[in-house]
Specification:
The protein is an alpha+beta fold. The protein folds into 2 domains: 212 residues, 2-Layer Sandwich (Alpha-Beta Plaits); 93 residues, no CATH class. It is 55% helix and 9% strand. The chain contains 17 helices and 5 strands. The protein has a 5-stranded mixed beta sheet with strand order 2-3-1-4-5, with helices on both faces. A hairpin with a 3-residue loop joins strand 2 and strand 3. The radius of gyration is 21 Å and the shape is elongated.
């Protein structure tokens, strides 16, 4: 069966959902939830994503994601594969833990994104796990993070959904008023219907007919920004990776001969690979072949050593490349 089209754009807004394979309760334990939250945080930092809302339930998750770069598929691939590896390692298991790639619903504008955030925050309430008063203690959502500004990650955007709930601000008083707003919304079925709660997790786009038509219109200017289908996405990604490699090699005054003659774990190669992995979620296999760095596991290990501070010379070059990037 052919894969569904993915619409990806700079500044795209998405509702992303996935469930455990065969609807298994993959997030049944607190440890699994914490592990997924940690991996989600790492994904946002690597991908440059902005999270507007998120929640982890027993067998599925919901994300309201904004992508400054058109990298939703790459980010989700990393998120799900890394979490699956950690999950299987801990449980000494193997195989797929999610039912498929993931479902992404493109959201038309911030107005609809704010409503989606309310919907996501109320997921545990609709599931009967807790009432609104208990959401703060549920822990595994952006609503719980709302209350602690000191530990809240910088990529979590709360100002917009607070503003949409009646001009609220990011303060303790604003948080308390938002709790009252959600209590009202949870008990108000006409308001939920007006916000389209019943269709938040359905279809492929949330928005007007004009918005849907624009997504599939094939206009030339839109076509340059959207990635449609698997083969086109692969070609676009690899062209971007190649451009970044060429720029980095020019900056470091390296060439094809250097790639062939220098050892696989050379600091400058590790620096280039780390930049491509962290900024563009470049795949280890592609980097290993393009930079003559060996097998995928070796590339992964070298870059992890850079992140862990075990390769200071490579990290210095990594900082130089990032500072001089033309992106």
């Amino acid at each position: 069966m052919a894969r569904k089209l993915r619409f990806e754009s700079e500044g795209g807004l998405y509702h992303v959902i996935n469930r455990g394979n065969h609807r298994n309760w993959v997030f049944e334990s607190e440890g699994a939830k914490r592990s997924f939250e940690k991996t989600l945080n790492e994904t946002c930092e690597r991908s440059g994503w902005i999270l507007h809302a998120w929640v982890i339930m027993g067998n599925h998750f919901h994300l309201a994601v904004e992508t400054p770069q058109p990298n939703l598929s790459e980010g989700m691939r990393w998120l799900q594969s890394v979490f699956a590896a950690r999950y299987n390692h801990f449980r000494k298991g193997t195989g797929h833990i999610f039912q498929g790639r993931f479902k992404s619903i493109m959201v038309e504008n911030q107005y609809r994104m704010d409503r989606l955030s309310h919907y996501i925050h109320l997921n545990p309430v609709r599931a009967g796990i807790c009432d609104v008063a208990g959401l703060r203690d549920y822990g595994f959502s952006s609503y719980a993070q709302l209350w602690n500004r000191k530990t809240r990650p910088s990529f979590l955007e709360v100002g917009s959904f607070l503003e949409a709930a009646g001009g609220l601000v990011d303060s303790l008083k604003g948080h308390r008023k938002y709790a009252k707003y959600l209590t009202w919304l949870a008990e108000n079925e006409p308001a939920q219907k007006e916000m389209n709660f019943a269709k938040m997790s359905k279809g492929w786009a949330q928005g007007t007919d004009a918005f849907r038509a624009k997504l599939i219109s094939g206009e030339q200017d839109l076509a340059k920004k959207l990635k449609l289908g698997v083969s086109g996405a692969k070609e676009f990604r690899e062209a971007t990776w190649e451009q970044q490699v060429v720029e980095a090699l020019q900056l470091l005054e390296k060439n094809g001969v250097d790639l062939s003659d220098t050892r696989k774990a050379a600091n400058w190669k590790v620096a280039v690979a780390a930049k491509l992995k962290m900024k563009y979620l470049c795949r280890n296999g592609w980097l290993g072949e393009r930079l003559n760095m060996g097998v995928e596991s070796a590339v992964s290990r070298y870059c992890a050593e850079l992140q862990q501070g075990l390769r200071p010379a490579a990290h210095k070059l990594f900082t130089l490349i990032r500072a001089n990037s033309k992106e």
